[in-house]
Amino acid sequence: GDVYKRQTSCDALGVSPSVDALLPGRRWHDALYDALASLLVVRFLVRELKLSGQPLEVFGKALGR
Predict the structure, then answer these.
(1) Could you give the CA distance from residue 5 to residue 11 in angstroms, rounded to a whole number?
(2) CA 62, CA 45: separation in Å to the nearest integer?
(3) Is the distance from CB of 15 to CB of 41 less than 8 angstroms?
(4) Residue 21 and residue 7: Cα distance in Å, rounded?
(5) pTM given for the model
(6) Sequential pLDDT tens for the chain (65 residues)
(7) What kind and span of H or E run contains 61?
Protein backbone atom coordinates (compact mmCIF):
# COMPACT_ATOMS: atom_id res chain seq x y z
CA GLY A 1 0.00 0.00 0.00
CA ASP A 2 0.88 3.67 -0.01
CA VAL A 3 2.19 3.59 3.55
CA TYR A 4 4.86 1.07 2.57
CA LYS A 5 5.87 3.21 -0.42
CA ARG A 6 6.13 6.23 1.88
CA GLN A 7 8.14 4.29 4.43
CA THR A 8 10.48 2.92 1.75
CA SER A 9 10.93 6.41 0.29
CA CYS A 10 11.66 7.89 3.71
CA ASP A 11 14.17 5.14 4.46
CA ALA A 12 15.88 5.61 1.08
CA LEU A 13 16.10 9.39 1.50
CA GLY A 14 17.36 9.08 5.08
CA VAL A 15 14.51 11.03 6.69
CA SER A 16 13.11 8.18 8.82
CA PRO A 17 15.53 8.80 11.73
CA SER A 18 14.43 12.46 11.85
CA VAL A 19 10.76 11.48 12.01
CA ASP A 20 11.48 8.95 14.77
CA ALA A 21 13.47 11.53 16.74
CA LEU A 22 10.76 14.20 16.44
CA LEU A 23 7.89 11.83 17.24
CA PRO A 24 9.19 9.18 19.65
CA GLY A 25 6.74 6.37 20.29
CA ARG A 26 4.74 7.00 17.13
CA ARG A 27 4.90 4.85 14.02
CA TRP A 28 3.52 4.50 10.50
CA HIS A 29 -0.28 4.69 10.16
CA ASP A 30 -0.32 7.42 12.82
CA ALA A 31 -1.65 10.53 11.05
CA LEU A 32 0.88 12.91 12.62
CA TYR A 33 3.78 10.56 11.90
CA ASP A 34 2.74 10.10 8.26
CA ALA A 35 2.21 13.85 7.79
CA LEU A 36 5.61 14.74 9.27
CA ALA A 37 7.30 12.09 7.14
CA SER A 38 5.66 13.53 4.02
CA LEU A 39 6.75 17.04 4.99
CA LEU A 40 10.35 15.94 5.50
CA VAL A 41 10.38 14.22 2.10
CA VAL A 42 9.12 17.42 0.44
CA ARG A 43 11.73 19.46 2.33
CA PHE A 44 14.45 17.03 1.21
CA LEU A 45 13.34 17.30 -2.43
CA VAL A 46 13.13 21.10 -2.32
CA ARG A 47 16.68 21.25 -0.99
CA GLU A 48 18.10 18.63 -3.35
CA LEU A 49 16.43 20.12 -6.42
CA LYS A 50 17.33 23.66 -5.29
CA LEU A 51 13.71 24.81 -5.49
CA SER A 52 13.64 27.03 -2.41
CA GLY A 53 11.76 30.25 -3.17
CA GLN A 54 10.39 28.90 -6.44
CA PRO A 55 6.64 28.81 -7.24
CA LEU A 56 4.88 25.55 -6.46
CA GLU A 57 4.42 24.90 -10.18
CA VAL A 58 8.21 24.59 -10.55
CA PHE A 59 8.23 21.86 -7.90
CA GLY A 60 5.53 19.96 -9.78
CA LYS A 61 7.42 20.25 -13.06
CA ALA A 62 10.62 19.05 -11.39
CA LEU A 63 8.73 15.95 -10.29
CA GLY A 64 7.28 15.45 -13.74
CA ARG A 65 3.71 16.35 -12.76
Answers:
(1) 10
(2) 10
(3) yes
(4) 15
(5) 0.80
(6) 676 788 899 999 999 999 999 999 999 989 999 999 999 999 999 999 898 998 988 888 888 87
(7) helix 56-62
